[in-house]
From TrEMBL:
CDD domains tied to this protein: TM_PBP1_transp_AraH_like
Subcellular locations according to the entry: Cell membrane
Spans traversing the lipid bilayer: 27-45, 57-76, 82-102, 114-132, 178-207, 238-261, 292-310
Mode of membrane association: Multi-pass membrane protein
Species lineage: Bacteria, Pseudomonadati, Pseudomonadota, Alphaproteobacteria, Hyphomicrobiales
Organism: Nitratireductor basaltis
Keywords, ordered alphabetically: Cell inner membrane, Cell membrane, Membrane, Transmembrane, Transmembrane helix, Transport
A cellular-component GO term for this protein: plasma membrane
Entries under InterPro entries matching the protein: ABC_transp_permease
Gene Ontology molecular function terms on file: transmembrane transporter activity
Listed name of the protein: Ribose ABC transporter, permease protein
Pfam family for this entry, one: BPD_transp_2
Length: 354
C-alpha cells in the first residue's frame, strides 16, 4: 500500500475532526469562558451571581431566538432594542393610567391583560417591518433601522423622556402581580428562565418539526427557488418579524417588572447582543442555517462574558471592544466551517464518482 493511500484516510480524519470542533465551537467557547471567570472573577460561582447572570442571559436569549428566525430567513431586525423600550413604556402606561377615554371614563387592566396588550404591540411592530419588507420592497436593514427610530421616538414621546416609576400595580384592578414576572420564582428558578425554556422549546419545535420551519430555512437558503417551489415567502417573512417583535415585547415586560419602572431608553444596543448571540450559536448571516439550541448557548457565552468582565472590574469601553472582537471571531470561524464543509462535500463526491 502506497504512502499516498495511507495519507488519504489520515487527511480525511483530520478534516472531519476539525469540522467537529468547528461545529462545537459555541459549547467549547462557553466552557472556556466559564472556566476562566470561575478562577479570575471573585464570587463568580456564588449562588447570587448565578441567579443574576441567568436573568441577564434570559433577556438576551429571548431576543436572540427571535433574531435567529429573522437571520435564517435572510433578513435582519435592528428594531428589537427599541421595541423593548416602547413595550416597557406601554406596560408602565397601562399600569399607571390604563386607557383614558376622557369625561371620567377609563379602562384599567389586570396583569394578564397588560401583558397581552404589550405583546400585541410587539407583534404589530414586527408586522410593520414585515409589511415594509414584503409589500414595499424596502431592504430589511433600512426598514428595521427606520422602525428602530420610530419606536424609540414613540417611547420618548409617551412620557416626554421621563421614567414611569413605581409599577407596583393596584390590587383593585388585579395588576399588583406584575412584579412577580420579574422577581418571582417557581421551584427556586426565576420566572424569566421558565419563560425562556417554554419559548425555546416552542421555537425549536417550529424550526425542526413543522413545515413553517422548513419554509424559513428554504427562504433564507434561496428565496427565488423557495418561491418557485410554492413556499409562501411573504407569509414566512411576516411570521419571522412578528415573532421577533413578540420576543422583544416579552423582554420589555420582564425588564419593567424587574425594575418596577419603565424608561424609554431601555433596550439600547440590545439588538447587537442578540445578533452576536445568534452568530456565536452558528447562525449564518447569509441565511439558511442556524439552530435555536446553538443560539441559546451563544446567549450564555455573551451573558457570561459580560457579567464576568464586570465582576473583574474591566472598563465598559474595553467590554465593548471585546464583544466586537468576539463577533468578528465568530463570523471568521463560521466562514472557516463553511469552507471545511465544502471541502468534505467535494471529497465525498470525488470518492463516489470513482
Amino acid at each position: 500500500m502506497s504512502e499516498q493511500t495511507l495519507a488519504q484516510p489520515r487527511e480525511r480524519d483530520n478534516t472531519e475532526f476539525l469540522l467537529l470542533l468547528l461545529k462545537a465551537r459555541t459549547f467549547i467557547a462557553l466552557i472556556l469562558v466559564f472556566t476562566f471567570f470561575a478562577f479570575a472573577a471573585p464570587n463568580f460561582l456564588s449562588t447570587a451571581n448565578m441567579v443574576i447572570m441567568s436573568k441577564h442571559v434570559a433577556l438576551n436569549a429571548f431576543l436572540a431566538i427571535g433574531m435567529t428566525f429573522v437571520i435564517v430567513s435572510g433578513g435582519i431586525d435592528l428594531s428589537v432594542g427599541s421595541t423593548v423600550g416602547l413595550c416597557g413604556m406601554v406596560a408602565g402606561w397601562l399600569i399607571l393610567h390604563g386607557v383614558d377615554f376622557g369625561l371620567g371614563w377609563s379602562i384599567q387592566f389586570n396583569t394578564l391583560e397588560i401583558c397581552l396588550l404589550v405583546v400585541l404591540v410587539g407583534i404589530l411592530i414586527g408586522a410593520i417591518n414585515g409589511f415594509l419588507i414584503t409589500k414595499l420592497n424596502v431592504a430589511p436593514f433600512i426598514a428595521t433601522l427606520g422602525t428602530l427610530y420610530v419606536a424609540r421616538g414613540a417611547a420618548m414621546l409617551s412620557s416626554d423622556g421621563r421614567t414611569f416609576p413605581n409599577l407596583n400595580g393596584n390590587p383593585e384592578y388585579g395588576s399588583e402581580t406584575f412584579r412577580w414576572i420579574g422577581a418571582g420564582n417557581v421551584l427556586g428558578i426565576p420566572v424569566s428562565i421558565w419563560m425562556l425554556i417554554v419559548l425555546g422549546l416552542v421555537a425549536a419545535y417550529i424550526a425542526t418539526r413543522t413545515p413553517l420551519g422548513r419554509y424559513i430555512y428554504a427562504v433564507g437558503g434561496n428565496e427565488r427557488a423557495a418561491s418557485l417551489s410554492g413556499v409562501p415567502v411573504t407569509k414566512v417573512k411576516f411570521f419571522v418579524y412578528m415573532f421577533s417583535g413578540l420576543c422583544a415585547a416579552l423582554v420589555g415586560i420582564i425588564i419593567a417588572s424587574q425594575l418596577v419602572a419603565a424608561h424609554p431608553a431601555t433596550g439600547e444596543t440590545f439588538e447587537l447582543n442578540a445578533i452576536a448571540a445568534a452568530v456565536l450559536g452558528g447562525t449564518s448571516m447569509s441565511g439558511g442555517r442556524g439552530r435555536i439550541a446553538g443560539t441559546i448557548v451563544g446567549a450564555f457565552v455573551i451573558g457570561v462574558l459580560s457579567d464576568g468582565l464586570v465582576m473583574m472590574g474591566v472598563s465598559a469601553f474595553w467590554q465593548t471592544v471585546i464583544k466586537g472582537l468576539v463577533i468578528i471571531a465568530a463570523v471568521v470561524v463560521d466562514q472557516a466551517q463553511q469552507r471545511v464543509q465544502s471541502a468534505v462535500a467535494l471529497r465525498a463526491q470525488a470518492n463516489a464518482s470513482k
